[in-house]
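hey m, so remember when u said the tokens were messed up on ur end? i reran from scratch. heres the input so u can diff it against urs
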Amino acid sequence: MAVSAAKPLPLHSFIGIFTPIPNKLTFPPLSFCSSTSELNNLTHHPQEHETDNRRPQHLKPGLYLVGTPIGNLEDITFRALRVLNAADVILSEDTRHSGKLLHHYNIKTPLMSYHKFNESQREQLVLRRLKQGEIVALISDAGTPGISDPGMELAKLCVSENVPVVPIPGPCALVSALSASGLSTDEFTFVGFLPKHSGSRKKRLMASAEQTATQIFYVPPHKLSQFLEEGSSIFGDTRRCVIAREMTKFHEEFWRGTLDEATKVFSIRQTKGELTILIEGQANSKVEPPSDIELENELRELIENGESLSTGSWQT
């Protein structure tokens, strides 16, 4: 078992901890921008909300799924800032939380709440605005919209109505955790949050335990002990796991060990923040068929031991 923690990063990098920032951000010229005016669109806002003046000419109307930092504000991309700045409205899981991000980058685009409790009521309103030619950006509290966060149903609706859906790649907890886990990345299954019902939850864990691919779960901190106890009994005590917490933040940690060790350690240890837990896949126990050379050697050995050719062939 090994425990590792990231090197401390500047405090101004984290959501909720800010230091004074310039009124206007500056970036070096980028080769993929057609003009310096596009860079100015990242940070400049007119006093009044004049959409046509703010919008880059090549940014077409549609739904933009914008990845946002999972902790460290420096992880946002230039393209994400440009889209958020140019949008007519930003759909946000928590407007107070997202407001900190927008304030940090001096983005004044209006926010509209969009979360699991009101997404069904918001969908038609958002669809009408999209069909009127508006640019709508969707962000979650952290990471990529639609991945264990609101956005999937709206994206499906837009696709069915032939409204463009544009991904703006960015941070994603499951990919970040997998890349640094030390477990196999050749094949993996993202399970996300488990069902609340005990029977459904254990059934899903049993299905995961049979797979040879790395299994990835999102687990709230208050559910960690329950997850480890159930996981240990279903996957087995010796199955290796990685618990990633506070990724990209000051107290980032990757805990590594067996499920049995994790159950003991975290039964007396309090954790904060959502956790990304990875469990190694089941060992591939499939017996590979013998090669032609192996068959020939075995047949030769049988014949040398006095077996007839026909008997040796049958036994082989």
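this time it looks ok to me. The first strand starts at residue 2 and ends at 5. if urs says something different then somethings off w ur setup not the seq
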